[in-house]
Design goal:
heterodimer; A: 356 residues; mainly alpha; 14 helices; 0% strand; globular; B: 510 residues; alpha/beta; Rossmann fold; six-stranded mixed β-sheet; 20 helices; 20 strands; binds adenosine-5'-triphosphate; binds magnesium ion
């Protein structure tokens, strides 16, 4: 799908620039083939886990493999992956955004307002809602750059502000009179098992993969996130890049919310829980499981997709096993901790065996 | 000499992923001696020092202290056994004060007792005074210049009063007078029986202070622990690179007829510069010399828009320029700046060699929709990486894993590729070996010949005299005057020192 480690410039056949006396090649230990290298990545670990749990659920539960169950799984995964990507876009800067949920809900409600109250045609309204997401992201980014405060503080504040203003303006009432295209799109199936929402997510992931790997903008975002001072002195407008990252995150959050609107057939203020907090666990789990460094400078698009997919599959599988919703949440929290520990172990194992 | 070695390393092998840094290196240190550890960039000097001081564990081989095998699980163990070190890269904690940094080891051992800051500052001051470093011990390290940090790092190592002290390029960013100061201290330690290891690419220093020498070449011993007596600079070069030194020297270049590219008029800045007036012509190489703290790097950064200009004007190519951001300086006015601090300002250490080398030209190389291919970047930067002989297992290697000198080469190479009209290079050859230094000088001359103006900031007077057409001397954030370079070291160094010490009270008078 997309490249899994986009900060490290080139891979594939590499020309070594004039090693002065052939030292690098002489007796270099552990030169890995591309395949073996892939087998040692985070992404491969995630794929293994996904397969493992898929088999487990298929065997132990009834209904996991029915077309409908797989269809809803794909649909939820599409949304959760989008939420994870939205968080990843900010983590790239070495920051985070607690406001992804709030931004998403605001964008969705804005869409409902534009269509239902102003009668705007729906394609235009979709664009406007995404722009709304980007605009709210801009507010976050601008505040972070201008105040120099950590994005944790800023987005903690804006999360409440955005959500509060939205509740005030909408009087917490849902927009249920949306044109049927939304609900139809949410219910649509292709190839029996798949929701077209997955295609939207796939397109977004491919776009991000291209951005971080093959575009100046994405690379500048990564550089600014990794070492702001050095990036600045290399001619990168670090402040602007941070703002762009927040805007990108806002737009992706809006997209995720619009996908929820399609699923629900309505724009509902509580679609992401109080203050949009229901999104936080999937938002962090995806990037962290996927191996995005929390201190910035690296984006793992494929990893985030796999991580978010794993999380979605685990929640729906556990629900099918009739574990209570509350336990699912606890389990996901536990998984977050385990994932971080496992990754640490994997890294130190590789370092000891000189395999990295 | 039948002194028994105080410390020995035998057949040390150290491998990193894809790199065999040490392939069986030996070294034996005598008490009361200064041992030179030499080799080209990437030869394995720092790696050996890190193995000896417990930063890395060797893949195989033995370490013997007073004849007994030792193994250090951590740097702490090495310190406890009386082995001190000044690493090539700075390891100070920026927000801590100078005194806290110097006494970090002691502080760490007594974390439940309250800290007596008066005593701490006092004892720190003692070490600073020895190094003639006039700074307040209570000041945070982040406010110091690179050279001052280096001296604090040395003070920190001295305060441990170790029997074996390893210094990895301690003089890299010092001027010769500061280095001379350090040597006085090192000689005294030596006479008191300490065993010192000294790494430097400045061979004059090595000849001056060291009595024994080990040379590494590509992770092997080219020479193992022999006396220095009878060896000259040329012999050392021969052992390091396997042949004699080459590379161009100073030549007279005339750019008087060329248009002025950068003109500063009565500049004052928010960091304290006053009355700065100077110009640089097209294709000219101007040296900017001054002692540590003269405000040269700060001036460069002010030109680049990092610090605010409070009065006076900057003209670029005849047009008044109001440069408010580094991005403007680079993309709009085509100015470039190679920072003296490669670790925090020069390089994005966690990213690859290729990603680093291309940053300033990404925008220029990008195509449709801002798209960029690695192959395009590689084509643009690899000539420079090749000319500077950057030693890396691949272009995808993380820059932070390269040897210090090779990191420095990348931080310079990325600007050579950038195609700017004026390039300011700040201590460009810090940590670069003599062979590459000659190549770098050739490259800078070629760059100037092809019409790029160059400002060279260096604490290394021979380097300035080898490169510059004209030398501007700064002291205390002012310009003291300028001299045309005639390329002879003795005359020029006298003229420069004369300017530095000219009229020290001019500030009060004016
Ligand atoms: N952590 C690391 N990971 C991978 N390779 C490393 C690491 N540290 C050092 N190397 C490699 O080991 C080799 C020796 O490096 P070392 O830093 O010892 O060189 P050096 O002699 O100190 O050079 P310099 O004069 O540039 O400081 C280099 O090729 C370097 O790329
Ligand atoms: Mg070194």
């Amino acid at each position: 799908m997309t490249s899994h480690d986009v900060s490290h410039g080139s891979n594939g056949p590499i020309s070594t620039p004039a090693p002065s006396s052939g030292a690098p090649s002489s007796g270099a230990p552990a030169q890995l083939s591309p395949l073996r290298r892939f087998l040692l990545t985070n992404e491969f670990g995630l794929i293994l886990l996904i397969v493992l749990f898929a088999v487990l659920f298929a065997v132990t539960t009834r209904g996991f493999t029915t077309p409908f169950s797989l269809f809803t799984l794909g649909r939820s995964a599409a949304v959760n992956i989008m939420i994870g990507l939205s968080m990843m876009a900010v983590i790239v800067t070495g920051g985070l955004s607690l406001a992804v949920g709030a931004i998403g809900v605001c964008a969705a409600m804005f869409l409902g307002y534009l269509i239902q109250s102003l009668g705007m045609p729906w394609p235009l309204a979709i664009l406007a809602a995404i722009a709304m997401g980007a605009a709210l992201g801009f507010i976050n980014g601008f505040a972070v750059v201008r105040t120099g405060l950590h994005s944790f503080i800023i987005t903690l504040a804006t999360m409440s502000i955005f959500f509060g203003v939205m509740v005030f303006l909408t009087r917490a009432e849902a927009f249920r009179g949306l044109p049927p295209v939304f609900a139809d799109f949410g219910k649509m199936k292709f190839a029996t098992y798949f929701s077209p929402l997955l295609l939207v997510t796939l397109a977004a992931a491919l776009g991000l993969g291209w951005l971080y790997r093959y575009s100046v903008l994405g690379r500048e975002m990564l550089a600014a996130g990794a070492r702001p001072e050095a990036a600045e002195l290399s001619g990168i407008r670090v402040g602007r890049m941070i703002i762009y990252c927040h805007m990108l995150s806002g737009a992706l959050a809006a997209l995720a919310a619009l996908m929820l609107v399609a699923r629900n057939g309505a724009a509902i203020p509580s679609m992401a829980g109080q203050l949009g907090q229901d999104w936080l666990l999937p938002a962090f789990l995806g990037p962290v499981l996927g191996g995005t460094l929390l201190n910035g400078g690296r984006a793992a698009v494929l990893g985030t997709c796999l991580g978010a997919f794993l999380v979605t599959m685990l929640s729906s599988g556990l629900l099918l096993m009739r574990v209570g919703e509350f336990w699912v949440q606890s389990f996901l929290g536990l998984l977050l901790l385990l994932a971080v520990l496992m990754d640490k172990l994997r890294r130190s194992y590789l370092a000891r065996r000189n395999l990295v | 000499m039948d002194v028994t070695p105080i410390f020995e390393a035998k057949n040390i092998v150290k491998t990193f992923p894809g790199v065999r840094a040490l392939k069986g290196v030996s070294l034996s240190l005598l008490p009361g001696s200064v041992h030179a550890l030499l080799g080209e960039n990437g030869a394995g000097k720092s790696t050996l020092i890190k193995v000896i001081t417990g930063v890395h564990r060797q893949t195989s081989g033995q370490l013997l202290l007073n004849g007994e095998e030792v193994s250090f699980g951590s740097t702490h163990d090495a310190v406890a056994k009386g082995i001190g070190v000044v690493h090539q890269e700075r390891n100070l904690i920026p927000r801590f004060s100078v005194a806290e940094n110097i006494h970090l080891e002691q502080l760490a051992n007594s974390w439940l007792r309250p800290v007596n800051y008066t005593a701490l500052n006092q004892s720190a001051r003692r070490w600073l005074e020895e190094l003639n470093l006039d700074i307040d011990p209570a000041m945070p390290v982040s406010d110091l210049s690179v050279a001052q940090m280096q001296l604090v790092e040395i003070a920190k190592a001295l305060s441990l009063q170790s029997r074996v002290l390893l210094l990895d390029e301690p003089t890299a960013s010092l001027t010769s007078s500061e280095a001379a100061n350090l040597f006085t201290i090192l000689r005294r330690l030596r006479d008191n029986g300490a065993s010192l290891v000294f790494v430097s690419h400045k061979l004059e220093e090595v000849v001056e202070i060291c009595d024994r020498v080990t040379v590494l070449r590509d992770g092997d011993n080219a020479t193992e622990s022999r006396p220095m007596a009878g060896l000259g600079r040329q012999d050392l070069v021969q052992m390091m690179i396997g042949r004699a030194e080459s590379g161009g020297t100073w030549r007279k270049r005339d750019s008087a007829a060329q248009p002025v590219v950068l003109q500063l008029k009565d500049l004052a800045t928010s960091v304290g510069h006053k009355d700065i007036s100077m110009n640089v012509r097209k294709g000219e190489i101007v040296g900017l010399y001054g002692l540590v703290g003269a405000g040269r790097s700060e001036l460069a950064k002010a030109i680049m828009g990092r610090f605010r200009v409070t009065s006076g004007t900057v003209e670029v190519a005849g047009q008044t320029a109001r440069i408010t951001s580094v991005a403007d300086a680079i993309h709009k006015y085509r100015l470039g700046y190679v920072s003296e601090d490669r670790k925090t300002e020069g390089l994005i250490l966690p990213h690859s060699v290729l990603a680093n080398a291309g940053v300033p030209i990404w925008r220029k190389l990008s195509g449709f929709l801002g798209g960029l291919r690695d192959s395009t970047v590689r084509r643009a930067v690899s000539p420079y990486l090749e000319k500077l002989e950057v030693k890396t297992p691949s272009l995808a290697q993380t820059v932070g894993n390269l040897s210090g000198g090779n990191q420095q080469k990348i931080s310079v190479a990325k600007w050579l590729a950038a195609g700017v009209q004026l390039l300011i290079v700040d201590e460009p050859s810090v940590g670069i070996d003599i062979k590459t230094k000659a190549y770098l000088h050739d490259l800078l001359r070629e760059l100037a010949d092809s019409g790029t103006s160059v400002i060279v900031i260096s604490s290394d007077m021979p380097e300035i005299i080898a490169l510059a057409d004209r030398i501007v001397v700064m002291n205390d954030y002012r310009i003291q005057g300028e001299v045309a370079n005639i390329g002879t070291y003795d005359t020029m160094s006298q003229a420069i020192m004369g300017l530095i010490h000219r009229d020290p009270h001019r500030a009060q008078v004016a």
